[in-house]
Design a protein that fits this description.
The complex is a heterodimer.
Chain A: H1 3-36, E1 40-42, E2 45-47, H2 53-60, H3 62-96, H4 100-111, H5 118-129, H6 134-141, H7 156-180, H8 184-192, H9 197-225, H10 229-233, H11 242-250, H12 256-288
Antiparallel strand pairs in A: 1-2
Helix pairs in contact in A: 1-12, 2-3, 2-12, 3-7, 3-9, 5-7, 7-9, 8-9, 9-12, 11-12
Chain B: E1 3-14, E2 18-29, E3 33-37, H1 44-52, E4 59-64, E5 67-68, E6 79-82, H2 94-105, H3 109-122, H4 138-150, E7 156-160, H5 168-185, E8 188-193, H6 196-202, E9 205-210, E10 213-218, H7 220-225, H8 230-235, E11 240-249, E12 252-257, E13 260-263, E14 272-278, E15 284-285, H9 286-289, E16 297-308, E17 312-318, E18 325-330, H10 333-338, E19 346-351, E20 357-359, H11 361-373
Parallel strand pairs in B: 3-8, 3-9, 6-7, 7-8
Antiparallel strand pairs in B: 1-2, 1-4, 4-5, 9-10, 11-12, 11-14, 12-13, 14-20, 15-19, 16-17, 16-19, 17-18
Classes of the chains: A mainly alpha, B alpha+beta.
Chain lengths: ~290, ~375
């Protein structure tokens, strides 16, 4: 066998599977979604076409635009909350815990919820925030309130809390990984040159951990903007996010073209975020060398 | 000379009961270049880190210019450190690294720029300020680290194994340069190293440490020529340490080992079995280099092995003692003309009483056991 033939054979024997997979479950569906987003709706189905009416509806009809803005806002709130929960934890693990075993234990404890069903974890918050829930019982027990309050559940706040809890591991992991890589000597050098703790954190530790923070934001933002379950479980009225509307359009409303257009918008937003964070990280990497 | 730093009965034990520094007292003089020398684990780095404020002693005090700084954090003592891995901030340029201390101190922009430029000139990297550490060679990184540590004009500069990242050639030139910079800036340097040659080349004084204690402190020549303990004798330079029997013979004191019978200094009080210490380069080859002085004793041995290393030759002589006598000779024109002996030849050597020293055999045995364990 000629070397060239052998190389080609080797290549395809290894990559035929992945190529088929990538093509049939990723590329084709994306192209179908893109194509259908230009179709015209004709109840009860749709006909092939090429027109921008669906996209115009998304902008012109304020209910879709509101949902889009709400999704962006909630994704941002979730990411920021997850950041403030994760950074101190990751910092504590990377710099303050001396015992390797304890560090591994705490890290695993923070990550292990990922192995539990998403639905179950989201549902848990119903039992915490509900009117018969743990939070209400506790507040009544310590005497802050006299009767169960309903303000905790079925609103956007509950969604942010639930999603922040669910997606925090995705923030902890990259931040911890970037903090762990910082040599202790850099922190000592900064203190040696006169910078107290906080100045050292601001000028050395935080900038050097930015790649991890960016990666964490990309994960949590991307995951929460497309979330579909927590609006249903813990969000009340006025808590629909893009994914819920997409589901409705494909289901009850039987409006596939509009659903596809929404899907394309969501895809573009997520790709935009990934690209932006990649660009930002590249800027950082030049500095990091 | 006035002392700038006083360490008073410092002790530090790490978790797990490892005693790093044990009741150590030391005076460092203003402007001197002091080196703490010892093998890894002898406590030298811990001592340095206690001076810098990176570790706090369990007992004892650190007095800087008469002020107690024992428990002060690193950022509030006028001492700076050059780290073993240089610890340059990777997200800052060389300039920003050097200017970091000034920026923190709140020095204005214009004076900072000027001072940073002066430092870049001093380390001979003018125009390289805009580069990031990753764009600099190891040698250049080291210079930037040095400039960064000196920019605030510290009272003391600490150097933690400064040459360990450099290759042999670069190491040699940096040793000379660092010494020059010390002389120029007039700042007190305290260095930690495990490299005895480096310590001798660079230092005004060397402190040899062993198991958390000071073994001996003095000038390089002092330590080399008059080691007080077998440990110092062995650690600095090459040495022969041969078990010998000491005999009194009329007015003379003689050390006997194998076929050797060497005259010692008349005032030697020792007797019995001792370890006879002599530097390999203090032994002359009489048959090649001519007769030695009057006081010298001669002995002969059979050449067991020869090691040639360019300018030097090492000759291992069998004299019937427990181990061979090692002789180092410089390969100068005289010796080259006379010709080197070959393996199996018998040569006559001479050594003067001043070159001989006796150590306690038990002490040497304990040291050898410790070496073997390490």
């Amino acid at each position: 066998m000629k070397p060239r033939t052998r190389q080609v054979l080797n290549f395809w024997s290894l990559f035929t599977g992945p190529a088929l997979w990538w093509g049939t479950v990723l590329l084709v569906p994306y192209l179908m979604m893109l194509a259908i987003s230009f179709y015209t709706r004709q109840f009860p189905f749709h006909v092939p076409d090429f027109q921008f009416g669906n996209y115009i509806t998304l902008i012109a009809d304020s209910q879709y635009f509101t949902v889009l803005l709400r999704s962006l806002w909630i994704a941002l709130a979730v990411s920021v909350t997850a950041f403030f929960l994760s950074y101190p934890l990751a910092y504590f693990l990377a710099f303050k815990v001396r015992s390797n075993r304890l560090r591994l234990f705490l890290y695993t404890a923070a990550i292990v919820p990922l192995w539990v069903s998403y639905l179950l974890r989201a549902y848990t918050w119903k039992t915490i925030l509900g009117s018969e829930g743990i939070l209400n019982s506790f507040l009544m027990w310590i005497g802050v309130i006299n009767e169960p309050s309903t303000i905790f559940l079925y609103n956007q706040g509950a969604m942010v809390v639930t999603m922040a809890y669910i997606f925090t591991p995705f923030m902890v992991m990259p931040i911890y990984a970037s903090l762990e890589k910082i040599p202790v000597s850099l922190i000592e050098a900064s203190k040696d040159l006169g910078a107290p703790r906080f100045t050292t954190f601001r000028k050395i530790t935080l900038p050097l951990s930015m790649p991890g923070v960016l990666a964490g934001f990309t994960f949590t933002f991307g995951l929460s903007i497309g979330d579909f379950i927590s609006p249903i479980l813990v969000g009340g009225p006025y808590s629909n996010m893009i994914a819920n509307v997409v589901a409705t359009q494909f289901g009850m409303a039987m409006n596939w073209p509009l659903g596809s257009a929404l899907g394309v918008v969501l895809l573009v937003i997520v790709l935009g975020i990934i690209t932006a964070s990649d660009k930002l990280e590249r800027v950082g990497r030049i500095n990091l060398g | 000379m006035t002392s700038i730093l006083e360490l008073h009965r410092l002790s530090k034990t790490f978790r797990g009961g490892i005693v790093a520094v044990d009741n150590l007292s030391l005076d460092i003089r203003e402007g001197e270049y002091l080196t703490m020398l010892g093998p890894s684990g002898c406590g030298k780095t811990t001592t340095l880190r206690m001076i810098g404020g990176f570790e706090y002693p369990d007992a004892g005090s650190v007095m800087l210019d008469g002020r107690d700084v024992t428990n002060d954090p690193p950022y509030s003592r006028p001492v700076n450190m050059m780290f073993q891995d240089f610890a340059l901030f990777p997200h800052m340029t060389a300039e920003e690294n050097i200017g970091y201390g000034l920026k923190i101190a709140g020095v204005g922009k214009a004076p900072t720029t000027e001072r940073v430029r002066a430092m870049l000139d001093m380390i001979e990297l003018p125009g390289m300020g805009a580069r990031f550490p990753s764009e600099l060679s190891v040698g250049q990184q080291q210079r930037v680290a040095l400039a960064r540590a000196l920019v605030n004009n510290p009272r003391i500069l600490l150097l933690d194994e400064p040459m360990s990242a450099l290759d042999a050639k670069l190491k040699e030139s940096m040793q000379v340069e660092l010494r020059h910079i010390h002389d120029r800036v007039g700042i007190t340097f305290v260095m930690v190293t495990h490299d005895q040659t480096e310590a001798m080349i660079m230092s005004d004084r060397i402190m040899v440490m062993h198991a958390g204690r000071i073994e001996q402190i003095g000038t390089p020549t002092d330590l080399y020529d008059h080691p007080r303990t077998a440990y110092v004798a062995e650690f600095l330079g090459a040495s022969n340490m041969i078990p010998a029997t000491i005999r009194r013979d009329g007015g003379e004191v003689v050390a006997c080992a194998g076929s050797m019978s060497l005259r010692l200094d008349r005032n030697t009080g020792d007797s019995g079995t001792r370890s006879l210490f002599v530097r390999p380069e203090k032994i002359r080859l009489v048959s090649r280099e001519g007769a030695a002085g009057e006081e010298s004793s001669t002995f002969s041995g059979t050449v067991k092995e020869l090691f040639f290393s360019g300018n030097m030759v090492r000759i291992d002589l069998d004299v019937g003692a427990e181990r061979p006598v090692i002789v180092h000779r410089q390969l100068d024109t005289e010796l080259a003309a006379a010709g080197l002996p070959g393996v199996g030849d018998t040569v006559t050597c001479a050594v003067s009483p001043e070159a001989l020293k006796l150590f306690d055999t038990a002490e040497v045995a304990a040291m050898k056991a410790e070496e073997a364990a390490a």
